[in-house]
Design a protein that fits this description.
alpha+beta, two-stranded antiparallel sheet, about 50% helix, about 15% strand
């Protein structure tokens, strides 16, 4: 059976570009009498229309998002908890869009700039209470390239690491495993916004902004 690492390596190989850009063009007739030519013309026109509509949509969405954000902050300040979902903005004609707030607390690494803002807003101790540290490990690339190492690791990780040290293929100083540390907001942080910030609307707004991608907010039509 082919080596597991060798198979993965072959599968993951990047396609090498030759540096030459080539293309094939199939010419069609007059848009008036040629069905395919007319379809091409219509597709190009529609593409321009879609781009114009997308820009227009972004403008209107921004207006609604600003309004919904203000209402959200006021609701949290008044009740101390998040509003019931779904949250909708509805006009007198019955047209409505949904305002979404998604808690992605554990998905993103908290940047130092965010921590500085939160420290100023809540204090260092309170900020630290909102965060947790997650560590993931990976193989050290340089060590894995040493002769005989990857083949042995493939058979049995823990057992073979011990054997490799004894066999001299690895030394006690070789750092086979690398650690990546990610500090994120604790799950459920968004739901606790009212508890964290109290009834201070300005503080709530600043807190949600400071959370960045960890508290995704957008209008869905």
């Amino acid at each position: 059976m082919a080596s597991l690492f060798a198979k993965a390596k072959e599968t993951g190989k990047a396609v090498v570009s030759t540096g030459t850009t080539k293309s094939t063009t199939w010419a069609v007739g007059d848009p008036v009498g040629d069905e395919v030519s007319k379809a091409v013309k219509e597709l190009v026109a529609i593409n321009y229309q879609e781009k114009a509509l997308a820009a227009k949509k972004r403008l209107f969405m921004s207006t609604v998002e600003t309004y919904a954000q203000r209402r959200l902050v006021s609701a949290i300040a008044a009740a101390g908890v998040l509003p019931e979902t779904p949250m909708k903005v509805t006009n007198s004609d019955g047209d409505s869009v949904t305002y979404v707030m998604a808690d992605r607390s554990g998905q993103y690494n908290v940047k130092e700039e965010q921590k500085l803002v939160l420290n100023e807003l809540l204090g260092a101790d309170a900020t630290q209470e909102l965060l947790y540290e997650e560590t993931s490990f990976s193989f050290n690339r340089d060590v894995m390239m040493k002769p005989g190492v990857s083949e042995a690791i493939e058979k049995a990780l823990i057992k073979e690491i011990t054997r490799l040290v004894k066999a001299g293929l690895l030394s006690e100083e070789d750092e086979l495993v690398e650690a990546k540390v990610k500090e994120s907001f604790k799950p459920g942080t968004v739901a606790r916004t009212g508890i964290i910030c109290g009834s201070d609307s300005e503080k709530i707004n600043s807190f949600l902004e400071a959370m960045g991608s960890s508290c995704s907010r957008y209008v869905k039509t």
